[in-house]
Amino acid sequence: MSHFPAATETLGTLHTAPLAPLLTRLFAQAEENSPRNAEALADLSDDELERQMRSKTGYIDFYTRLKDFPLAVSPETGQLLYMLARSMRAQNVVEFGTSFGVSTLHLAAALRDNGGGRLISCEFEPSKIERAQRNLSEARLLDLVELRAGDALQTLSADLPAAIDLVLLDGAKALYPEILALLEDRLRPGAFVVADNADHSPAYLARVRSSNAGYMSIPVGADVELSMRLG
User: Fold this and answer.
1) pTM, 2 dp
2) Angle, to 10 degrees, between the axis of helix 75-87 and the axis of helix 19-32?
3) Is-contact 30 70, C-beta < 8 A?
4) Keywords of this protein's UniProt record, alphabetized (predicted)?
């Protein structure tokens, strides 16, 4: 008699309970609670909003305004993260900007389906760390994730894997070049760097798209810059 694998074996962690229904709920909440039309940003003009998003000094105050908002990646970006991590059999992943943990869940699911690994994720807002921890616990993925609370310029400056397979940049956009610089020496050849909303960080785009920077880099959709470390 032929053996057909069970649905959970075929679909993997991302598409089965407990993670799949949790993500459905979290994406619905993120859509309902977008900060774009919220009172948290109502006093900012479009120009001022863009200025604050690009600021290297005011990002803590700006993101503190948004501490109650998920600021989640899109479902498509979440699936891209999972696919990249799975296809390269990633074991060591670093995430800048945990928020409520939506992207963290996708990356941790890939590590689970790869057979294990370590995901270091950092977030300066304590209440978001707590939310992410609860979501990871509900998804039974918390054992794969090290949540670091505080400014990533400090929390990602030490105790990193010798070789990093995948990086997600989804925190303060102005810090993308500085965060990349902290991790760059540990990126293995072929490592991917995914930068969400990278158009708000022109300096970052100029760096990874430079012909002598050591990356191959392309935009993916409207929101993501996907870069591969060469060497």
Assistant:
1) 0.92
2) 140
3) yes
4) Methyltransferase, S-adenosyl-L-methionine, Transferase
